[in-house]
Design brief:
The protein is built from 10 helices and 12 strands. The chain is of the alpha+beta class.
Length: about 375
């Protein structure tokens, strides 16, 4: 159900027959709650038998609101946060309005930035699992347009950001020199092809690279003879019931259902692999649950961390950072572009996850808010197991 325009709302929604309820804001008297009972699994993903309530709610909607407020978001900023886990009903809070002055909702589609890397890496992992892709093979087997310096780069170097590509600003400056208006995969590849004097030393150091994931997406397309958007839709979005998610490469700056970023139209984020993902809070909770509950056959693979060529371990797996916080294993990645920020976190041993989205430029606010929500979850889990 869609809340009326110009109302901020908070709700807890269920995977089963428990109430789906939300509280309206400015257009309803304080304390008025609407409740709708569903007889189907509205998430359409995790069977009720897998969603047995094994822990108490780790935090309240009020505590989610406190996390948003403490992060310092200006009044009216569009923010959506959600927590899923084995406690019967997911917890979701949204505030603010889109540039079109529509209330920001859990099914509002926005640009998710580098969260696309998780999906891109999962697509690559599926090809590795099926034997169609070998991560030790040189990327120039598929990307023959790249200069000679790319011949020593392997697919695994792309996945774990150890390829030693030219710096992002160098690539963008090269694109601008040829009057590239938008950030597209073609524009990035043409710029890389012109940077023939670069000297790559892959496998020696971790160096986060958007260009590397654009190359990974192109390899997926050339292995499968399909656009990444089609492969991801068939192998990930449809199986996980993510109907409002897609990879978008233009020519318009956004898909028809997407929300404008509220910034200048150029450059538009149209490259795929490093970004290009448009999604919603609801869909990204499905993505997190799909990984937490093993609904994708590659869940273990994509959370296997990489290493440098000398064996030095990294904390970066396949499009996901994996680390330990207070003894708990955390899987996390962020995303940003002028006008939007995003964050995903998972606690796989406890089947807990966080999704946070904002139509806001401030990365520090997003980090602070998501870290505060994670602290609540860690404290709750520790209290409930003691």
């Amino acid at each position: 159900m869609i809340a009326p325009a110009h109302s901020n709302f908070a709700h807890a929604y269920s995977s089963g027959r428990e109430p789906y309820q939300f509280q309206l804001g400015s257009h309803e008297p304080a304390g008025v709650w609407w409740e709708i009972r569903y007889s189907i699994d509205i998430r359409g993903l995790v069977p009720l038998t897998d969603r047995i309530k094994v822990m108490k709610n780790p935090l309240s909607i009020g505590e989610l609101s406190d996390c948003i407020d403490a992060a310092g978001y200006p009044c009216g900023t569009a923010v959506a946060v959600g927590v899923s886990g084995p406690f019967g009903a997911d917890i979701v809070k949204t505030t603010g309005f889109t540039p079109e002055d529509i209330a920001f909702a859990p099914d509002t589609m926005i640009y998710a930035g580098s969260l696309a890397k998780q999906v891109t890496a999962a697509c690559a992992a599926m090809l590795v699992q099926s034997g169609e892709l070998n991560t030790d093979h040189a990327i120039t087997n598929w990307l023959k347009e790249l200069p000679a310096w790319a011949s020593s780069i392997r697919v695994r170097h792309l996945i774990h950001h150890t390829a030693d590509f030219p710096a992002e600003l160098v690539v963008w400056d090269e694109m601008q020199a040829f009057r590239t208006l938008d950030r597209t995969s073609l524009g990035v590849m043409e710029a890389l092809a012109r940077l023939s004097n670069h000297r790559a030393n892959p496998g020696v150091a971790y160096d986060y690279s958007n260009s590397g994931y654009i190359c990974l997406a192109l390899i997926i397309e050339r292995v499968t003879a399909q656009p990444l958007s089609v492969f991801a839709d068939e192998r990930i979005f449809k199986p996980l019931n993510m109907p409002n998610s897609c990879f978008w490469s233009g020519p318009e700056p956004k898909p028809s259902s997407g929300v404008a970023l509220g910034k200048a139209l150029a450059p538009a984020p149209l490259s795929l692999g490093d970004g290009g993902l448009w999604s919603t809070l609801f869909d990204l909770l499905r993505w997190n649950d799909g990984l937490n509950y093993g609904k994708l056959s590659v869940s273990d693979m994509v959370h296997t961390v990489g290493s440098l060529d000398d064996g030095t371990p990294l904390d970066y797996a396949w499009g996901t950072r994996v680390f330990t916080d207070q003894g708990f294993r955390i899987q996390s990645h962020g995303g940003s572009w002028p006008g939007s920020t995003a964050k995903l976190m998972r606690m796989p041993e406890h089947k807990l996850s966080i999704v946070a989205l904002a139509l806001d430029d401030d990365i520090d606010r997003m980090i602070a808010m998501s870290a505060a929500i994670l602290d609540h979850l860690l404290l709750s889990v520790e209290a409930q197991r003691s």
